[in-house]
Amino acid sequence: MKIDVLVAEIGSTTTVINAFDKINTEMPVFMGQGQAPTSIKEGDVNIGLQKAIEDLKEKLKTKELEYRYMLAASSAAGGLKMTVHGLVYDMTVKAAKEAVLGAGANIHMITAGKLTDIHILKLKEIHPNIIMIAGGVDYGEKETVIYNAKMIASSNLDIQVIYGGNIAAIDEVKSIFESYGKEKKLHIVPNVYPRIDMLNIEPTREIIQSIFEAHITEAKGMSKIREMVKGTIMPTPGAVMRAAQLLKEEIGDLVTIDVGGATTDIHSVTEGTEKINNILMEPEPIAKRTVEGDLGVFINKKNIVEIIKKERLSKELGISLEEIENLIISNVAIPKVDKHIKFIERLTKEAVLVSIMRHAGEYRTYFGGKSKTLVVGKDLTGVKWIVGTGGALTRLPSRESILQEIGLTNKGSKLLPTSEAKILIDNNYIMASIGVLSTMFRKTALNLLLKSLNYENQ
Questions:
Q1: In angstroms, rounded to a whole number, what is the distance separating the alpha carbons of residues 380 and 361?
Q2: Per-residue pLDDT tens for 200-246?
Q3: Distance CA 94, CA 98 (A)
Q4: Which residues contact 269 (CB under 8 A, 6 or more apart)?
Q5: Listed residue (188, 187, 116) closest to 155, CA to CA
Q6: Cα(324)–Cα(346) distance, rounded to whole angstroms?
Q7: C-alpha span between 247 and 256 (Å, rounded)
């Protein structure tokens, strides 16, 4: 069988391969999906990829499978690890953090102010893929970023570094890295916080993904995949964000929710409402990602149970505390029996509501001569669509009603989507693949995503 494109999603536990055909027509087709365990322990992720392709062949009932292009997204081995080092946490550090998360990276360390020897030791322990230095508005304070650049360049860290701070310090930062023979490790981008109340994070997101793709071959087995892939390799969360941005251009403001086994990711793409923007204390990016590392329905299900409480779960689900305990320790990732399904649905609902609460901004009242109400954080009240993707929210029977709970909880000070927001489900579970596919075939990718969302019938 000959098809146009395979898109691989190489995760930490599972590798998925999605097949697409008729790419250059008005009616592109999603052919099917194969999957297999990711083979990190075997020392070669290519083994898992080949097994996923074999699984796809079985589903397509073919012995041979030829393709024109292979693209890929990866979060294997913990995904893209980054650290962020800025000047003031609420300003430049926050801006750099938004850029890093939106690009699909996982942040393992954040510092504000001058780095210390202890910080450098921690950096060596973490050994991130990329270090980001930010700080100072343009032509403002530059002593801190210059100091931090010297601390990092003078260490024996052999790591890619992005500088996205005060434009006035660029020449000195370059000179520092050159003096230590590390100029090829340094990447200069426009200041992420060029002036008060202004974010400029898209250039940083682009360079992060570029560095990721250039150095992904350092993972075991990825050099072979780099040879197979004829196009882009992206961080998986960055691919989901790209798909969300593409979709927003077509259908309007949205929030995408992915409840996984270990984490829950929220991607919102919205300018917010004029009413809220007028009283916003600090700038927020149009495209924002948050990742809740404690909220997952398999690896981290015990954390969610502790939030809900076992007694409450037992009463709500009509099952004994002993059965709750057995479900917590179960090693079955995909629920098959009714009690297990109901249990995972309840955990998914909690993960959705807690993570969207953390993602959303809120009203705050300040008291001085007279009280004043302002807003901190992301305004989601203008969101028209809530999109469910990932394993839980594309496969569980109650996926739509779970997402509808968001609008029903829109009370109090939190700036959540309203009950008027409509629900869309990524039925084919291809959103990350669509983000990667859009780098080469933008219109085709959008058409395939709209089909997966069943958008025409909304």
A1: 8
A2: 999 999 999 888 887 766 655 566 777 778 778 898 899 999 999 99
A3: 6
A4: 244, 245, 247, 248, 253, 254, 255, 256, 286, 287, 288
A5: 116
A6: 12
A7: 10
